[in-house]
Amino acid sequence: MENIVSLAISLAYILLVIGLATLIAHHQGGRSEYSRKFVHIMVGNWVFITPYFTSLWAVALVPFLFIIINALNSRFHLFPAIVREHENLGTVYHAFSMCVLSSAAFEFGWHELSFIGLLTMAYGDGLAALVGGRWGRHHPFAFARDKSLEGSLCVAIVAFLTTLACVFAFPELHADSLTMANAWYAGEAVSTAIFLLESVLIALVTGAFAAFVELTGTNGCDNLSLPISTGIFASLLLRYGSIGMTIYLLVALGILIYAYRRSAITTDGIVAAELTAATLYAFSSIWVAGSLLLFFIAGSLVSKISNRSKRKGESRQGDVGARNWKQVLCNSLPACVAVWLSHFSQSTNTGALICFSVFAAACADTFSSEIGMLSHGKVLNLINLKPVPNGTSGGVTLLGVIAGIAGSALLAIPSAGQYGIRGFVFVCALGFAGTLVDSALGSTIQQRFADESGQLMDAPAYPRQRAAVGIAYTSNNVVNMLTLIFICLCAYALRGFVIA
Asked: What's the farthest any 2 CA atoms get from each other in the chain?
């Protein structure tokens, strides 16, 4: 009965918001800018109803329905008051974020996950557009010239206040805090003061993080990246934050800023990498967290090594240049999913082994590709052993094979700190196997295009060119993801060789 009542209230509230938005648009002479922002902000208040649901299906049903409605509205303009001409999929992303965060918060019992994420998107992003449009006079962000300092401050302030409010609203955050759990060390009064200070600092960091995420979003994608990233980031800090985690994240941020200045990573790549770092530190060991930094540093360094042969090979590839969020996620998402699952299934030792194997495979593939293209020798297709041009996916060289072994061994070193020599050999072997699997998939299912001479290359020779071989839309990033998922499954299946 609670679910039925909550569903009825939810639908009535959202329909009321749409009705009021229609009146606002009519009053504005048909213009939808203010009515859209009204809906954007007010729909976020639905999160206050979610604690009254008692079943996952009921929590997910309301936003799921509005994913469908918003998708149809973007196409057919069923509700003109909440869509602009040439609208992107921002409203669909908005509903999708509501579905993901509310469902995850219910399943994990992390109420702050949805409250911080959705309210920051609703009020922070909504007010940022209004404030920036009306009073935005300063545009200091070189990577986001269309966004103002005033609007970014709105996002930061809302994220700060929402995070701090959640600390006081949800008592379980007190129980999960390491400071409160050890209150008897310094006395309850002192520990409470320290806890409050920590909470304020976490809220400040969350505010800064949210503002940066909003700056990196384009074409409505911030309705996905802002709530999901901010909700996860704040929840990890509130539940697992420590001095060690703070130092680690600062070190990671310093490395990422340096990489950005060297054009090795994009701003949205920084968001994905920092969120990955927080996840691995919270749910795994310091050895796993360190392996992420080692992989990023080593991969960035070898990508800067170049000669004439490599430059010629890179001209045949796509996604050359600074790493964006897609490349970061394709190399780290399997590891993140593994540690999330292992954490909630009480098998963190297995999750760590999977992470080591994933990063060893990713590093082996990076070394094999980046260093292999330096070779002036023959490049052979791994499947049929026929010669192919340098830079062709699926092509291997002797230098690349040796580099792949070296990259795998390098990333297997941290695993020795947790599992000893047996773990090192296990991870090194799986890492090198990963680069072979990647090459095999690259030469079979990855989409490749024919150039003027009929030779295959990763990048299309002209716009809308159809793939000559492989499966359409199966890019190098997709192949990387599939490879690392395969390595995850292998590590899990063979874990008995390392973990008793």
From this structure: 77
- Give, for 456, the enclosing helix (H) or strand (E): strand 456-457
Structure tokens at 78: 């069923």
Do the Cβ atoms of 393 and 476 come closer than 8 Å? Answer: yes
Task: Judge contact between 232 and 279, C-beta under 8 A.
Answer: yes
**DSSP letters for 415-441:** HHHHHHHHHHHHHHHHHHHHHHHHHHH
Token output for 154 = 């709105």
HSE value, Cβ hemisphere, 13 Å, CA-based, for 92: 11
Are the CB atoms for 55 and 33 separated by under 8 Å?
no
- Residue whose structure tokens are 């699997």: 437
Beta bridge partners of residue 457, listed in sequence order: 449
- Looking at residue 180, its pLDDT comes to 46
Please give the average per-residue pLDDT across 169-198, as a whole number: 65
- Residue of 38, 39, 95 lying closest to 72 (CA atoms): 95
Per-residue pLDDT, averaged over 328-344, amounts to: 90
- 277-294 pLDDT, tens digit per residue, is 999 999 988 899 999 999
Asked whether 82 and 209 are in contact (CB, 8 A), the reply is: no
Q: Quick check: helix, strand or coil at residue 458?
A: coil
User: Residue 142 burial by CB count (10 A; 0-12/13-18/19+): exposed, middle or buried?
Assistant: exposed
pLDDT (tens digit, 9 = 90+) per residue, 238-265?
999 888 898 999 999 999 999 899 888 9
**Does pTM surpass 0.85?**
yes
Indicate the pairing of strand 395-396 with strand 449-450: unpaired
Q: How far apart are the first and last CA of the chain?
A: 48
